[in-house]
Amino acid sequence: MKKLLVLNGPNLNLLGTREPQQYGHETLADVEENCRKLAAKYDCEVECFQSNTEGQLIDAVHKAGREFTAGECVGVVFNPGAYTHTSIALHDAIKGVDVPVVEVHISNVHAREAFRHHSYISPVAAGTVIGMGTKGYGLAIQFLLDD
Questions:
Q1: Binding site residues for substrate, as ranges?
Q2: Most buried of 9, 31, 67, 142, CB within 10 angstroms?
Q3: Briefly, what is this protein's role (predicted)?
């Protein structure tokens, strides 16, 4: 069975309670369950991982790269949260492995504070989904799994 990683960065564990006017009322567990249901339609298993720690996210990208090379993983759906705008290390991790990564943001980061307008992830991502709410995860999954 194919596998894909849904990776979430800092503060996404607070979905449903953190700024619901910006991020909605769905929890991270809701998002993960929706991802699993959609991927199952493609006969694909979803592994979900969230961390507030940059190094753990880098390790998860490295692992996904190894699994992609081994034919075990088809890609990564990644909402890096605030690390989008600060992490050259995550940029380098994605660039350093051979796995397609789709960057996802629930809110329209370009309609928010100026510091959110730059992404270190976009230049090394296979694609980006921005401002589509939690539906963006599903769009990213469809992109990775549609043949």
A1: 79, 85, 92, 106-107, 116
A2: 31
A3: Catalyzes a trans-dehydration via an enolate intermediate.
DSSP state of 17: T
Q: Which domain holds residue 70?
A: 2-145
How many domains would you assign to the chain? Answer: 1
One-letter amino acid identity for 63?
K
- Distance CA(27)–CA(33), nearest Å, equals 10
CATH of the domain at 38: 3.40.50.9100
Cα(71)–Cα(80) distance, integer angstroms: 24
If we measure between CA atoms, which residue out of 9, 28, 11, 19 comes closest to residue 121? 9
Catalytic center residues: 23, 105
Claim: this prediction has a pTM higher than 0.85: yes
| Inter-residue contact 1 to 45 (CB < 8 Å) | yes
**Single-letter code of the amino acid located at 12:** L
| Residue linked to tokens 């370009």 | 110
Binding site per annotation, positions = 79, 85, 92, 106-107, 116
pLDDT (tens digit per residue) in 7-30: 999 999 998 887 777 677 889 999
